[in-house]
Amino acid sequence: MATDVWTGVEEVPHVRLGQTADLVFVAPATADLLARAACGLADDLLTNTLLAARCPVVFAPAMHTEMWEHPATQANVAALRSRGAIVLEPAVGRLTGPDTGKGRLPEPAELLETARRVLARGGLEADLTGRHVVVSAGGTREPIDPVRFIGNRSSGLQGYALARTAVARGARVTLVAANVALPDPAGADVVPVGTAEEMREAVLKAAGSADAVVMAAAVADFRPAEYRESKIKKSESAGPAPIELVRNPDILAELGRTRRPGQVIVGFAAETDDVLANGREKLARKGCDLLVVNQVGPDLAFGRPDNAAVVLAADGEPIEVPRGPKEALADVIWDQVAARLDRPATRR
Ligand code: CTP
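# cytidine-5'-triphosphate complex -> structure
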């Protein structure tokens, strides 16, 4: 442990630590520290280390909401990001004192996972720095009555892996999560939703400023035409009560139609039969740039930590991704997104 620049001066700790580090991870990063780092001050061991470091640098800010939202802090964050640092978005929750809001330090286990992911990139640059990406995850639930819903088996693992890997590549991430029972990935802005309509609203709102949108969520195609305020009783009718269904909006197709110039749109397709033919047809029909096709079945994809897929592109050859961790598939998807973002940019 080192705490000051004057202990062991002969070893020149004020530069040696930064020079030899594989990763500098500042948690918690206060508003004051962000300001000092943005200005390049070097009046203690930490700021000296930050100036000397040539490895990836990650800041995990933690402060009260007002301080995080202050234009001075936001300008400092923007300056650090423009120089390649990864500045995580704070979590939302209980702060020091009775207030709650954005500014909380993410869970330590999630911070560790971010550090692991940044190191796993083996010194590759944070190629999504300065980009805003939107990821949808989980499965929508369409309520029938207060106790029942129409849902699906999506666990949200693939969407969360996409969010984690995008954070580790420097992106500002909005994660629209439908009914996911997983810890919030450190550094992502998590927007919880329930139904397809709620997901549509949240995704379209976030997409307004996004460079890329990845629809990994399983969205219910239909919802009950009518929500019953009281629990449906089996005594209501002699036989099974029919539930009339209506179509939900297709969010991915809407994104394909309404995208900003240069915005990259990625869909997923869960198929049980004719996987590639159905995928190609879906890619064209929904107007996306990339479609990640995976075969689903009783033991495939849902709820498992691994996945295998084919990434179809509107403008290139299919890429087969062998079975492996969902993070590995996520990185292949971001490689493809990043390659397309380099073309005529959509910078704000
Ligand atoms: N999707 C969406 N909105 C919907 C349904 C699906 O945005 N109402 C998105 C999913 O997030 C996914 C992609 O569309 O990225 C493919 O979803 P899928 O259910 O496989 O496609 P469908 O349009 O339902 O086609 P089909 O029922 O013919 O398989």
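# post-check
The chain has two domains: 9-105, 132-340.
The mean pLDDT is 92.
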